[in-house]
Amino acid sequence: MHSGRIHTSVNAYGINKDLPFFENMEQYISVKISCLYDYHTDHDFPKFARECSQYLTEWQGERIVQRATLMDPEAILDMALRYLSGCGTMRRSPDGALYVLDSFTDRNCDPARYVGDVAPRSIMAQAHSCAARAYLDKFMATPAELVDFAADERRFSRPQELRSGTGQSPLANFSRAIHHANESVKLGLVSPIVLRVGLMMRDLGAQLGVDVSQMERSRRFRPLWRAVTRRLEELYTEERKKQAKVERKPNEYVCAAEGCGIGANGRAALRACSGKCPPDLKPHYCSKECQKKDWPRHKPICKAGASGKLPSMLDSDKASALKLFELGEPEEGESDESVAEGTQKPQIVQESDAGENTGDKPMRYTEPGAARTISIPAPNAPGGSIQITSNTLDPESMKALRDAASNSMNGDAPS
Question: What is the C-alpha separation between 225 and 202, in angstroms, rounded?
Fold first, then answer.
């Protein structure tokens, strides 16, 4: 479930045997790297581990709590890291971390501990990044972990949980992770965990049939989508540079699997990757076996940030999930040519009630594929029309949708 996650890679290093090493300190270091630093940061791991050990030695248990009680933002943030990692005397508890982080993110928490109006911008960004991690942990939790987390929800009785109720659906937790990741980006921090949340959101959109290529115009989470897009472009640029260094004969096509060596007169004789990687980065293979062999190398390009299978979602949650992918108007300074005109949110209409919206013609769906676009007359829209794009509706259903919308605008919708 957790394979392929976005993280900061580190090599294996020897640790000084005299270095105090606390329980779950390795998780503490991992959480700190994934939540508090920009994803470009290259860490000197032995030095970082030594600094963490020294800090934990100096600020154990009661001492860090005392600092947090005095409304020290750094101490409050560190308590959240300890809850997220289970380091030291605190067992791992996403809800414990969220309770602590409410001091930064929730004005409805106890006023005596709210520091969101005085904490530095950098710490506020880190707090939102940590909150994204906490909600993502809840979203990805196993059934056994969910039992413990539900008990923690009752134990900490956070204002947000009291307002919305305990035992929220996985989608509710993921939505909150997206919100906090987006806030972190707005405050200037794109951490590894923020990118992971954004890339998982992209995977979810693809599963729901959303045209993710349009999502830089997201109405609610535009900063996060743009951070994800920049990261994907970085990955693609790095791969193009690698491929540019590979010397090949101009007219020779070779299976991309390392060590295979089978060539062809043209790429049509080889099997192309069917994933969503850019066309110029698609590898070609002589067989399924070679494709499987090469997958560990190609996966970071083809499925950047993929986190494995997403938790199952109730049918009742899917309509709510689509609201995460609503599009908005272009920002000031963006030209009309730079973005598509459509501003409609993607929708899924059940066949049983689709006739209410499309003149009694049921919607028909296809497997996600090439996106189709249709224009719907809209006198008040720029250019006099709105474009609807879908990669799951068949052409007849899209025409029925257009006709129903036109009839509605003309005042002669079916009764």
Answer: 8
